Amino acid sequence: METYHRSCLLVSALCLAALAGCSKTRPTIERYHVTGTVSLNGDPVDHGEILFTSPEDVASGNEGSGMIVDGKYDLMSTPGAKQVRIYASETIGKDQQGMNKIVDLIPPKYNRKTTLTVEIPPEEHVANFELQSNPNRRRRGPQNNSEK
User: Fold this and answer.
1) How far apart are CA 85 and CA 131, in angstroms?
2) Which of 38, 84, 114, 115 is surrounded by the most beta carbons within 10 Å?
3) pLDDT tens per residue across span 37-92
4) Which residues sit opposite 126 in a β-bridge?
């Protein structure tokens, strides 16, 4: 019987030690409010996504991302040097199988092969991005039927 009580005490002590190890709090990660505008060839990007990232952000799961709406974005980011990726696309009709044809509006140098960077200070920040693509290829806006 005494062996049983010692075993129970030992198991209880091990459980308490394990729980004490789990109660450690993670360090607080500072994130700051970042806002700004995104334009392509002088026109606001109607809708899309913007991502601020660094190797440290990827490792800790703290990349900052936000939606672009009417050329404006709003997100939270950790401070430091960031690589910026901007995405926007539109549907331009259907293919032969009836599937939507989607084209990227933003050139790869601003997303998959980004050359954009920004430094985020440890405070609220504004960062605007004026992107350029082929100047002969402007975004298509709504068609005006009266011009036919």
Assistant:
1) 11
2) 38
3) 999 999 999 999 999 999 999 998 899 999 999 999 999 999 999 999 999 999 88
4) 35
Alpha-carbon gap, residue 47 to 121, rounded angstroms? 26
DSSP state of 111: T
Q: What is the largest CA-CA distance in the chain?
A: 98
Q: Which amino acid is at 28?
A: T
Prediction pTM value: 0.70
How far is the first Cα of the chain from the last one, in angstroms, to the nearest whole number?
98
Nearest to 84 by CA among 115, 61, 45, 130: 115
Instruction: Give all domains of the chain, ordered by start, each with its CATH number.
Output: 32-131 (2.60.40.10)
Q: Please give the single-letter amino acid code of residue 83.
A: Q
State whether residue 103 is helix, strand or coil.
strand
Q: Is 96's pLDDT higher than 80?
A: yes
Both tokens of residue 63? 């990349």
